[in-house]
Amino acid sequence: MAIEIICTELGKSYIGDGVTTNALQNINLTFSKGEFTAIIGPSGSGKSTLLSLIGTLDKPTTGKIQYDGEEIMNKSKNKIADFRFEEVGFIFQQFHLLPTLTALENVLTPLFAQKVAYKKHRRGEEVLEQVGLADKMNSLPSQLSGGQQQRVAIARAIVHKPNWLFADEPTGNLDTETGERIFELLRQLNKDKECGVIFVTHNPKLAAKADRMITMKDGGVISDQPGESK
């Protein structure tokens, strides 16, 4: 159970047409389990790149990422995949629900390839109840509103009981009122389960409600300060 993430001199570069682009550079941050952190900044500032690196979806060009002092990205692909399943849940702006599967079946997809001790079907029902969709378990994505689809995506992200929840613009495709409800749901999950939440957003009003607000620009951190909840 990882309770701390440490990023040290983290950098990410891309090379195209002989030109090197520094998406991230010299990132030094520590995240604590149980904390709700918002990362904000303009498009191209490096927010999503940072989230992908912290969540082990991509590897840094320079620097290192440690979970409780252990450098995860030095492990094999299989070990990293196992670690990701045990520790991390992802929520994206695009819901990425499979259109031919019901809400419950979509939620259960992360568990199909894993050997888990608890009953998979019941666990899926539990998390859908938790996000307020007990009456939509057998609905297809096309039968759900945008906000309901995002809640299914959230349920899928927490079905394996992760210690860290990473949300990349999860309210970006939703209207303001629905986006605020999704934010409050993530906030409640953070409080109830004591999982660390790192939330990328363009919305400064939502970011200010977090425990901590990190502002990025041009691939670097320009401020790191407490949110309104602190």
From TrEMBL:
ABC transporter domain segment(s): 5-230
Pfam families reported for this sequence: ABC_tran (PF00005)
InterPro entries given in the database record: AAA+_ATPase, ABC_transporter-like_ATP-bd, ABC_transporter-like_CS, ABC_transpr_LolD-like, MacB-like_ATP-bd, P-loop_NTPase
Any one GO CC term of the record: membrane protein complex
Enzyme class: hydrolase
Assigned keywords, A-Z: ATP-binding, Hydrolase, Nucleotide-binding, Transport
Molecular-function annotations in GO: ATP binding; ATP hydrolysis activity; transmembrane transporter activity
EC number: 3.6.3.-
PANTHER family: ABC TRANSPORTER ABCH.1, IMPORT ATP-BINDING PROTEIN
Protein name: ABC transport system ATP-binding protein/lipoprotein-releasing system ATP-binding protein
Species of origin: Sporosarcina limicola
Biological classification of the source: Bacteria, Bacillati, Bacillota, Bacilli, Bacillales
